[in-house]
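For the sake of transparency, this paper describes our internal protein records without simplification. An entry from our holdings is shown next, in its original layout:
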Amino acid sequence: MLKHCLIFLFLFISNLINAQDISMGGSKGGKAGGNDSLDKNFTFLPLPYINYNRSTGFSIGAIPMAMYKLNREDTISPASISGLVGVYTTNKTWFAMFFQQLYFKEDTWRITSAGGLGSYNFQFFIDYPYNTYIDYSTDMVFFYLNVNRKLFAELYGGIHYTYMKFDTRIADLPTSKETEQHGTGIILSYDERSDVYYPRKGFISNANWSTYPAFMGNPDPSNKIDIDHNHFFSSRKDKDVIALRAKIGVGLGNLAFEQQFIIGRNDIRGYTEGKYRGNQMLAIQGEYRWNFYKKMSAVGFFGLASIFSSNNSSQNGEILPGIGCGLRYTVAEEYHMNVGFDIAVGKDDWGFYFRVGEAF
């Protein structure tokens, strides 16, 4: 199912972009100044990727990326980031992609782009009378572009475009389905976080409308609305963080199978089998980020989610809890960029998550 894979990819990118930074060439603070040497403005960081998922198995890959300032004199804009991702799993899922987040003009402009290709092997669930999972495989190509500009105060507004081409094959069926989708839309964000990469106070609210109209060649015209709010509170004299997140997803029109919402990943951790999917979803969660010793920290989290307009009517409105904990290690103290892992338990499911940055 392409949508699940794209959610994984985009959330993975989001974790890299919105929850981390690295010391620019070892210069504490990462700001332009002094002798303006290249090593103070550009840092290359190759990161390994190792993970385990109950559905895709063990994953191994690499994330070579660079952090840099587009303008060395701009001390307001966060560092920009560009990178590549390559991953292969034991169930023969693979993908290769690029990602980029640009901040410039004193944080007036924010541009995100990503693109890649891969093959994703997953499953979906059918309830009564079968009560079983069906395997399927999707070959895909995708591209995403999001351009945002500061409108006033801390309000950003922009447009985005998504291209997806996929060929889905269901196990034991002789035929496949090839589809192209072109989506565009509007996004509004109000960002009052104290820091883009590791916020200790403030909030960010996002409202995203995506449309897949017939005039753009979409076989299943539809609309999606995603609204989320992330709020951060300082604790223990600014040492720790209490983070809260709420997410609403609404699908309108003839939502395709690949466009449906799936419970899992960052909303809510603890679900990796792809069992719960539908046209609408609700999710809330809270997390405590405990910085207990130098570069070491731990997180504990709990959340609830529910799905509506599900393919399996028995799942509509079912309350799905997720609870777990994780460990972090700070690899760049100036921006508190962490790597680590989470372990979470859901209803008849569980998950292990390798993390670069935080969940949200």
Q: What stands out?
A: The first strand starts at residue 42 and ends at 53.
